[in-house]
Amino acid sequence: MAEIKEMTPEELQQAIEENRAYTIIDVREDEEVREGMIPGAKHIRLGDIPMKVDTLNKDETHVVVCRSGRRSMNASEFMKEKGFEAINLKGGMLEWKGDTTKP
Length: 103
Hints:
Residues 18-101 form the Rhodanese domain. The chain is an alpha/beta fold. Helices cover 32% and strands 18% of the residues. The chain has a single domain, classed as Rhodanese-like domain (Oxidized Rhodanese, domain 1, 3-Layer(aba) Sandwich), CATH 3.40.250. It is built from 5 helices and 5 strands.
């Protein structure tokens, strides 16, 4: 299994502030996302990743987010196996201190 890069919420917040090019993928369930998500994130539930991964751009770097970092790690591993650059958000939304938006 390939090693998955991880990023802290603080590193992602800084990247957003510096307009660095990341596509943020939120793999939480609908009811979790309703509580708020990182602005600009795309919502693709973990169970839908296998069917929707081909709609994503392989030339982009994806930061994958869930509640605690476990499901997003699974999604990151799957995406990496499919040839995507995927970074797991360590600690997930539980550790996110930045702005959130409602879908």
